[in-house]
Amino acid sequence: MFRGSMVALITPMHDDGSIDEKALQRLVEFHIEQGSDAIVAVGTTGESATLDYDEHCHVMRRVVEMARGRIPIIGGTGSNSTWEAIKLTRCAMEGGCDAALLVTPYYNKPTQEGLFRHFEAVAEAVPIPQILYNVPSRTACDLLPDTVARLADISNIVGIKEASGRVERVHELLERCGGQIDVYCGEDIKDLAVILAGGKGAISVTANVAPRLMHEMCRAALAGESAEAERIDARLAALHKTLFVETNPIPVKWGVYRLGLAGQGIRLPMTPLSEHHHESVLQAMKLAGLL
């Protein structure tokens, strides 16, 4: 359903942590102009963990309004409460999002049966297309291929963002479910390998600062132009690493700030990028030709 470079958009904030709507508008326009293939609003990179329910719905709705149908919008609506995930997913649908991205329930460590019933319940309650999101390093649970295969039979579950860090897991998902749902990479350093293996794109942190390059890399990889994709990815390699020198979205928010698109506001418990990392992120941006 979705293809290419889907930016996991930051939520720009003022120094006091309030949402910066003017910067949000600039970012939406930036990504449309630079060729991003979709925008994911209020995912992990969008600080979903520290936006309250009303803010969460507000940002999703405003991004849809700002985009005006020019680019697909995917709302991040996952929660460790099935009831809250349903409520947020309904909010995304009513706000005009084209799909929802649902992270696995974090902290409470459900069983595989619990994971299946959680995603089944959200899909049955809200008919919007839904993309599963597996990121064990953050959630303390792992959505296994057997469970994904069961969920792939649900008509409005259309994809999975796989961020377990294991390319062999992607191969297994493609083999088991590739004909039913799309597989997207959730770790930028592995985007190229996943797309060349049969993935349909990337939900990308790097695209916040390098949207044109990420779009072109994904386009080339999806077209089977591996040499061109590898050439572009080589320009992005340092960014893929340095944007994770501290917990996402700390480094990428600083990178967006250096591009002049937003301020440095970020909410506790996240803190601004440590000064000793500034130079490495700056050099990675220069290597990519962004500055």
TrEMBL record:
CDD domains xrefs: DHDPS
Localisation per UniProt entry: Cytoplasm
Pathway: Amino-acid biosynthesis; L-lysine biosynthesis via DAP pathway; (S)-tetrahydrodipicolinate from L-aspartate: step 3/4
Keywords, in A-Z order: Amino-acid biosynthesis, Cytoplasm, Diaminopimelate biosynthesis, Lyase, Lysine biosynthesis, Schiff base
Record carries keyword Metal-binding: no
UniProt xrefs under InterPro entries: Aldolase_TIM, DapA, DapA-like, Schiff_base-form_aldolases_AS, Schiff_base-form_aldolases_CS
One cellular component term from this protein's GO annotations in UniProt: cytosol
Protein name, UniProt field: 4-hydroxy-tetrahydrodipicolinate synthase
Native source organism of the sequence: Nitrococcus mobilis Nb-231
Gene responsible for this protein: dapA
